[in-house]
Amino acid sequence: MTGAPDAPEATPHTPTGPSHPPDPPVPSAADVLAQEASLVFETFDRDTAVDLGLAAVALARARGLPIVVEVKGVDQVLFRAALPGSSVNNDQWITRKTALVELGGHSTLYYRRLHEEAGQTFTEQSGLSEEHYAAHGGGFPLNLAAGPDRPTRVGVMVVSGLPQLLDHALVVECLQKVLGSS
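Above: the chain's sequence. Below: its structure in token form.
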């Protein structure tokens, strides 16, 4: 797996300075599923969505990261920001990553790793078009803790603009911050 930025034709942005996180290790598909299981909400509303988006913006600004972040509920975008250095290409990645999470219910990095671990590309194994779905890190389902009378998935958080492992790591970091976990 490469850590290529979402917009490969763009000049990659390499953050510098003490606030730049090291490249994260490549998680297995099982590791990503464990993250999904641990990063769930007891309640989720518009304020929570804004808190998630603002957490991403704060971290990205502090680190000089050129991202687009979107937090979407089931039927509506609840937060969106495009920081300096991001581009319309990132908007397209956001759309494709969101589509995959909404279709399958899991993180985009989960699908990437699942197919890589099987020795095939996402498109080969799933039959889904890369034109409409992106199995690149940075899309993450927003789920409620399991309950008998409520749906589990309540939205999607997506980051685009960094190499895919860093997009994923930033989403996880924001969820941990808002949920108060580590």
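The longest helix spans residues 46-63.
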